[in-house]
Queue: 4 jobs
Job 1
Amino acid sequence: MTKKTKEPTLDFTTNWAYEPAPEDTKHITLKKQYDLFINGEFVKPNSKKYFATYNPATEEKIAEIAEADEKDVDKAVKAARKAFEKWSKISAQERGKYIYRIARLMQERAREFAVIETMDGGKPIRESRDIDVPLAANHFFYYAGWADKLEYAFPGRTPKPLGVAGQIIPWNFPLLMAAWKIAPALATGNTVVLKPAETTSLTALKLAELIRDSGLPEGVVNIVTGAGKTGAAIVNHPDINKIAFTGSTDVGKIIQKAIAGTDKKLTLELGGKAANIIFEDAPIDQAVEGIVNGIFFNQGHVCCAGSRLFVQESVADIVIRKLKDRMETLIVGNPLDKNTDIGAINSKEQLSKINKYIKIGIAEGAEIYQSSCAIPGKGNFCKPTLFLNASQSHRVVQEEIFGPVLTIQTFRTIEEVIEKANNIPYGLSAGVWTDKGSKIFNLTSKLRAGVVWANTYNKFDPTSPFGGYKESGFGREGGLHGLMPYLKF
Ligand code: NAP
Ligand code: MG
């Protein structure tokens, strides 16, 4: 726990059980209540209803967030439609300049974004500061560069924007997912109505403030907050041209059904259950770091988390021993403390889902191992957990847990591990650890996963396309591929 300090510029609306390190809280101001961002200004919701957002590490209320209903969504879509007429016609260089400005302002306010992301969602400040926020800014920088180069991206074709994009995002990377959605939509000349997840709306609303300050023409980006019903209102609005959804496979299926028969375009980035495969010729210490990063990064709330570990039998004992030793060094606790490795589970609901799966794993007969670390008495926390001797038919192996829980299976041959890795409804990502380049090339072509990392894990870059196969969804975000879902030719 960090030392208690008095910070004069701090303007939190509630008392904090944890006082963040002072250098991390400079210039942080949070309002008591947040309204909807429609047509370039913050407006009250039609229903006059607000819901609370909590700090999952302290269980304290941070602020109240407006709940948008169908009328609010309609207002946002109308603003986006009107803005589209101008935005799609201004020069591509101008569009690029606006997006660069958003990227630069985000860099300037990086610390504020990082602290709020950590307070609202529970992820360690080290991750918000060093990964989420810089990557989000990089995404805007990267797509700003594409704005006036679309004819080079698609030579011989004449790309045109689609119109109004409805975008719905989850709670695990709130600001980063907003950047993944908004940046390519703007670069291609579309306008946006975006809904963040219910438990993590604050950085999207801070982004709305930043967008307002950037001078982006009114109505180009609209941010409406609320629960699933608000998301459904976006999906079902007749004047939306494209839905971009990131979230669970269950909701993805509902959305796909809802827009069947309409001419709305759709991309779905859904769940995952990735195989992380360690061969006997892998650099073992490096691989153990990769396993830890693969499953414990962001408390395991990662769609592409390496949640199924496959270790070649000959090195299984040493890998598992080293993994257990490494787990003992992980610090679980106050997400605002820079030394923390594993922060808070995002919500009470998610914590009970994880705990339910831990019970299921035990009942199924897998051997449980948890690190002996202490966890805070208050807040939503979960110890890093392993299920040893898991088998392919176990639910903990087949279903997405979305927490710091790793199943471990062993294998003898390359054919066996490919078969097991692919025998799952998901196909988002995978990891391979080996000294042999030929093995890497063999596996990358046989693993049915959108992303395969070799001798590393959870590495993200705006230039690199990301997306799934099978029940992990369709369409790609990032890179040149990420432009396509927002264009017609
Ligand atoms: P979720 O429950 O599907 O929610 C995602 C978003 O959809 C939220 O904003 C949610 O609002 C909204 N929503 C809920 N019901 C809806 C409906 N009927 N119509 C329209 N929108 C609706 O997923 P989550 O629990 O937030 O996120 C975790 C999931 O996201 C995991 O499965 C994870 O693998 C996946 N994910 C995938 C990727 C990827 O790139 N493939 C990246 C990150 C996460 P509320 O917040 O109010 O529920
Ligand atoms: Mg929250």
Job 2
Amino acid sequence: MRCLKKKMSQVFSLTQRYKRTLQAMAAGVFLIYMTLVLYQNVYGYSGSGGDGTNGGQDLQYGSTDSAAATVQNVIAKRDYSVNSVNGHVIKSVSAKVAAPTRFDKAYYDYQNGQLSVTGTPKPPTTELDDVLISVKTTKGYHDTRLEMIIKTWYQLAKEQTWFFTDTDDQHYQKLTNGHMVNTNCSQGHFRKALCCKMGKEFEFFLDSAKRWWCHFDDDNYVNVPRLVRLLDEYSPTQDWYLGKPSISSPLEIFLDNTKTSSGANKKVTFWFATGGAGFCISRALALKMLPIASSGKFVAIGDKIRFPDDVTMGFIIEHILNVPLTVVDAFHSHLEPMEFIRPETFHDQVSFSYARMKNEWNVVKVDGFDLKTDPKRIYSLHCYLYPFFSICPKTTKRR
Ligand code: UDP
Ligand code: MN
């Protein structure tokens, strides 16, 4: 009997001990959980481990050896993956397919009333109308480049897109419902003229009430719904400079009028987004640029560094304002081979381009119109993406 009692008390105390251990563990788990909840509330959600602002993450450009080749690259809130620019491996924002925006739905509903919208992780907060798209063009390209834009992607962003040119053109003014801006900048592909137009685009954005400014060249095809989805990943109230470099290491320039202690010209190093691929700037960042770059000052900075408009933009943002370029691989200029963009990914790309290189076209490889009708492949690309457009052959299958 005594033995049984002893056994019983042993079992009892054992149960008590387990109970206490379990209680302690539960309290520990609860404490960790509460800490996490509190942390998330204070700092917000950041997939990159950054803080959701521009203080994100240091990324190394592979196969470079100097300290200057390290760039502070900010990663989008949700995910990132390894990609490459000119063969150099970088970590950057991936061309992630997001759920369709309200704009996509409106467009498809308008076209045929059938395509349904799939589930979305969060309701989109950025709409097409939050964006100002500026396209740089020139008198000589109205017929050869602008016409194609107006027949294709412009139709998806008629109210939001403006063309910055160097002449009055009644024909295109009518076609665009007054969206041709004569910048009074000189014609010609030289720095001053190009910087002059870029400065006008910037000031036009500042005068608007838009949350985002996206610049493109007139040889870009802009995938409008994808552009809106991209911007929806970022906040216009934070500093964002989104685009893609066309060089594999940061640009190094020497400033004439700034000397080091030894009397040499000061070297500065920065990244810039290639203008020919397009880039986007948030309103918050544009407001920081205002005192430096508005009222004609953009041209003055271009003159000072003696580099083209897109380089000047990078100099102002990365060097002067210390806001890093966020690399978005979904922008494409004709400095990259277009044929390597796979058709299955067309919907994920923000921009495309084309160029004639000697006797060959650097163009997107896509089925569609014959090469004679559409040597630049832009109409074919547009019909691949949006087959229900009236310019597209009736037989084109939906993708
Ligand atoms: N451009 C311009 N004035 C010119 C030539 C070109 O404003 O005299 C614009 C053109 O419309 C385009 C951009 O500059 O948006 C780049 O021109 P292009 O594609 O001809 O040359 P790239 O710099 O791409 O080689
Ligand atoms: Mn070009």
Job 3
Amino acid sequence: MKIKNHLGIAALAAVALAACQPKQEAKPDFLTEEINNIVAQHTIQTDIIEKSGKCLNPRTLDTLGNIVYVPIDDWTSGFFPGSMWLDYDLTKDEKWKNLAEKYTEALDSVKYLKWHHDVGFMIGCSYLTGYRLCGQPEYKDVIVEAAKSLSTRFRPNAGVIQSWDADRGWQGKRGWECPVIIDNMMNLELLFEATRLSGDSTFHKIAVSHADQTMKNHFRADNSCYHVVDYALKDGSVRSRQTAQGYAHESAWARGQAWAIYGFTTCYRYTHDQRYLDQAEKTLNFYLTDKNLPKDLIPYWDFDAPKIPNEPRDASAAACIASALYEMDGYCQGKNYKALADTIVTHLAGPDYKAKVGENGNFILMHSVGSIPHGQEIDVPLNYADYYYEEALIRKRDLENNQPFSFVTEKDSVQ
Ligand code: GLY
């Protein structure tokens, strides 16, 4: 009895003490914390842009720490509008939808762009993401027109979409005839979707041909991929296998591996062709088992960079792979790719990679690499690192809620 009384008094005292304490706010969960951070950074970013009165498109920071804005024909112009759509998806706040529409529609004429292959990134991340979320009929026409433009770069003898013109810019000085870069795998989603939206199977067939040729010619025995394969226009034979942004022709450029893993996973989504998923998994296995992959799964910019561990990391490659892994998790039962993706995302969200609000030019992630051989964008924020990071967060959210991905239209669109 005595003991009981003591316990009763102690319990009362505890309640009284708690009532006198200042109220502790519950710590927001992981996703809420990430959304709050993204909203805070993008609020500052878009306030700067809106105040300028121009439709600016931020890509990165220069060596002096100034924000670099890009013209609409830059390959990265779709990522910032795309991030606005992802902000809308994460918050359901109409403010982000309005900004997303504004920055997306500034890219309208990109649908006619035919002088490089990146229209898939540009229109895919902006218009296609918007269309998936809000279904604007006029966006559908832009997506199909852009797919037509991209298709003009298809070279039937080689069965591939030519990435870069062989007589333009620094690429024109390399002696290439029909250069195809692994990055081009990321443009195929636009073609698959254009067939779905228009009923014209030409786009789908071009995408399949490109994926098949890439699978045949871009990979080494260890399933790492080359960056550039140059084809002969006359007969489609391979003229050379090289790099442009990696350390060496025979090295494994980290973002190239990311483009391959993500790109072949997307091809599987639209075709259900097991060979594509197998290729994505094989390249993922290369990535995961390479001795130079750090424990946080965020790679150095090239797996063969000479001064590892004193080489910059590439957060953009990691973010892209994390997003792909969440999709692969649904296709590869029993592999728990989600756990790997969670590891990457958790590290990206940590203080080593995520910038403090108001810093880093108001980009979300630090520590990506554009192109070391060109001396450009070394250890900087990049708008595509942020885009794929946000996409990964959305996929994580949807997986954990047992929901289909909010911006993957259909799983069964085999033509
Ligand atoms: N698509 C160009 C790059 O990945 O840097």
Job 4
Amino acid sequence: MYSKILGSIEFNEERLNSEIDQINKFRFSSAYKNYSVGEWKTCLLWNKTGRSNDGISVEYSGSAQPTEFGEKLEYINSTINGIFNMKTCKSVRIFAARGNSLIIPHRDYLEFKDGFHRIHIPLQTDSHSFMSERDSVFAIRQGEIWFIDGNQVHSGGSFSNKLRLNLVFDFSTETSIVDIFKDQKIYNENLEIKLVQRPELSDEKLSSILNLSFIIDHNNIRDIIAILAKIHFFFNVSSELMYDWLIEICNRSNNQKLIKAALRFKEYFLIKGPTIPFPLDEY
Ligand code: YCP
Ligand code: CO
């Protein structure tokens, strides 16, 4: 796995909870709606412009500015400023996954020259919130500081009815990951992590998945995608297989329009990203 733990901090529960109450009232952006299954959204705390409506990531020189929402979170800001050198930080966001929601397996930075060092710190989570990288599924716990390698196929979400809130940072790749830390006492890659073991996906289950070819059509392709995106969290398979299953389901359906959409769908999330039009816009 390329994603790795970098350290862990203990939040002051009372102060954190009062800021989570504020976060619950903030406006969230649907900028990456195409990536969302269920309800997965972002809230811009710091970005290039300081405008909370600018929800799309951009590469730029200079440091991130707090938005109207970022400015309100005194405790979170002082915690962040204690851990990291914020000078090379390009954005701070909240990634919110409502119950039973996730971000579809994808690769990041496909539209960028360099991309970022992405770091996640869960603010609110439970034992049914997971992240994944290819064929590994892991739980990242409140206060853990994780490097998430967006170049690898990854996904994450909440599989209970709990709202999961992660604090997410994008740092310039000009700085090494170690140097992002202002407080070197916090930096520690040797902490124990929580990998999730899953049972094998039986041939019978796989053939049931592929038999979705009998019912797939433009009305339910998004529902079928939601089913496929979740399988790897519960069975020991690699997340990117969902795209090949979708292609096979569409091939077997013999629907030329769906076959074309499925091929472009894989290309969008794994190879080209937002540099090409989103293939399901007409569904
Ligand atoms: C980003 N990429 O890199 C987005 C986040 C998934 C797609 C959501 O900012
Ligand atoms: Co990502």
